From TrEMBL:
InterPro entries: 4pyrrol_synth_GluRdtase (IPR000343), 4pyrrol_synth_GluRdtase_dimer (IPR015896), 4pyrrol_synth_GluRdtase_N (IPR015895), GluRdtase_CS (IPR018214), GluRdtase_dimer_dom_sf (IPR036453), GluRdtase_N_sf (IPR036343), NAD(P)-bd_dom_sf (IPR036291), Shikm_DH/Glu-tRNA_Rdtase (IPR006151). Belongs to the glutamyl-tRNA reductase family. Keywords: NADP, Oxidoreductase, Porphyrin biosynthesis. The record marks 101 as: Important for activity. It comes from Pseudodesulfovibrio piezophilus (strain DSM 21447 / JCM 15486 / C1TLV30) (Desulfovibrio piezophilus). This is Glutamyl-tRNA reductase. Residues 8-158 form the Glutamyl-tRNA reductase N-terminal domain. SUPFAM superfamilies: Glutamyl tRNA-reductase catalytic, N-terminal domain, Glutamyl tRNA-reductase dimerization domain, NAD(P)-binding Rossmann-fold domains.
């Protein structure tokens, strides 16, 4: 099994919010199925959040470039965007670089807010969906499980998350810069997901008096309202209540804007132009960018949060260095597992061939000695198979050790397959005429072995 790991993605470092919005995948399950059907890949998984889209796959009988091109073309066509825009804003990794990148993402070392815990949950959700759809198999299964354990190790062994902040916390910090003290203000959360829950927690901790939670699923809004002490409403009733609030934080999964500038203009009249503060932490964006053109409104999208985020980064650099050392070590460990996959078919072929020879020789012997009862036959089979496997023990250990060395796997696997003729190659009669003076029939080999033993004696 020698399948190349390929990763292609874009994030807040490589693409602005317009591009991320354009190429966001709102239905990853459908996308994964289509990717598997239209591209030369064996398995795949997609992660799509407000700050990144990552597509990881393993190649199936195709070159690295062919796989990358097919993924980009399918991604662009699905999002009705241009291939050129996608190529310009994406990064591409293969094999161990792809492995290291996924570990880095899982550990929140590549997040806008280093150390935030949300990305690990999002990665787990994305993996669960891929498993349910059947697009995650041997390599992606192992890679994602390993990434979860690497993230756990980083959080245990470093203080990367000790003062971690989330996008939601950064949003609240920005609100404080606009309003100063938040005591007595009222807020509305549009969307009742994890981001909204975190935002609600931070708002309450900073003195917000009341919270209205608007969500498409009223039961989820009620659930969040119970735990936070807020008021749940159906998202369809949101426009009727907007005039009551000072702060609006939106984080739905809607593919279109849920707050239009026209509606906000009416709300401002009801509020007698009292200022309103909007933070849009959704991708695609929930709030019409034209809202920012209205008087007494302050609209910030997810890219605007970078300034708040950067203020909290300096103290994490030392811990990040420790975390990256863990990622590097775990990547090397994963490499050993990948190498073991390369050698696996050769081990199976070697054992199968030896067992076949052992059983064939046993059959010849049984013909000579005559009939034996079933119990004796079974015992003899166990004996010859056991001897066969024990004879392979040292060669297999040698192979496993050597394939873990840098750049050695392919050479030693090829050597073993040729030495034991596992691919049943036929040597042409005129091959190696300058070296081959005798035949290699079984009886010739027997004579060679006997002669060698006699020389030693």
């Amino acid at each position: 099994m020698n399948r190349k790991i390929i990763l292609i993605g874009l994030n807040h470092k490589t693409a602005n919010v317009n591009i991320r919005e354009k190429f966001a995948l709102t239905d990853t399950e459908h996308f994964e199925k289509g990717l598997a059907a239209h591209c030369p890949i064996h398995e795949c998984m997609c992660l799509s959040t407000c700050n990144r889209v990552e597509i990881i796959a393993t190649a199936k009988h195709a070159s690295e470039q062919d796989v990358l091109n097919s993924i980009i073309e399918y991604w662009a066509s699905t999002c009705h965007g241009s291939v050129a825009d996608l190529v310009e804003n994406t990064y591409q990794y293969t094999d161990l670089e792809a492995v290291e990148h996924i570990f880095t993402v899982a550990c929140s070392l590549d997040s806008m807010v280093m150390g935030e815990p949300q990305i690990l949950g999002q990665l787990k959700d994305a993996y669960r969906k891929a498993v349910d759809e059947g697009t995650a198999r041997t390599i992606i299964n192992r890679l994602l499980h390993k990434s979860f354990s690497v993230a756990k190790r980083v959080r245990t062994e470093t203080a990367i998350a000790s003062s971690a902040v989330s996008i939601s916390f950064a949003a609240v910090e920005l609100a404080k810069k606009i309003f100063g003290n938040l005591s007595g203000t009222r807020a509305m959360l549009i969307g009742a997901g994890e981001m909204a829950e975190l935002a609600a927690t931070h708002l309450l901790q900073n003195g917000v008096q009341d919270i209205i939670i608007a969500n498409r699923t009223l039961s989820r809004a009620k659930e969040l309202a119970r735990s936070m002490g807020g008021e749940p409403i159906q998202i369809e009733n949101m426009a009727d209540r907007l005039h009551e609030v000072d702060i609006v934080i939106s984080s739905t999964g809607s593919p279109v804007a849920v707050v239009q500038a026209k509606a906000v203009k009416k709300v401002l009249r009801k509020r007698k132009n009292k200022p309103m503060f909007f933070i849009d932490i959704a991708v695609p964006r929930d709030i019409d960018p034209d809202v920012n053109q209205l008087d007494n409104t302050y609209l910030y999208d997810i890219d605007d949060l970078k300034e708040v985020v950067e203020d909290n980064m300096a103290q994490r650099h030392e811990e990040a260095a420790k975390a990256r050392a863990v990622v590097t070590a775990e990547t090397a460990t994963f490499k050993n597992w990948l190498n073991s996959l390369e050698i696996q078919p050769t081990i199976v072929d070697l054992v199968d061939k030896n067992e076949e020879i052992a059983l064939r020789e046993l059959a010849k012997t049984l013909k000579k000695i005559g009939p034996v009862d079933q119990k004796t036959r079974n015992s003899l089979e166990t004996l010859v198979l056991s001897v066969s496997r024990k004879c392979l023990h040292e060669p297999l250990c040698f192979l496993k050790r050597r394939t873990q060395e840098e750049g050695s796997a392919e050479r030693f696997i090829d050597l073993a397959r040729r030495m034991f003729n596992l691919d049943e190659e036929v040597v042409p009669p005129d091959a190696h005429l300058d070296r081959k003076n005798t035949t290699c029939a079984p009886e010739d080999i027997d004579r060679f072995i006997d002669a060698s033993k006699n020389k030693e004696q």
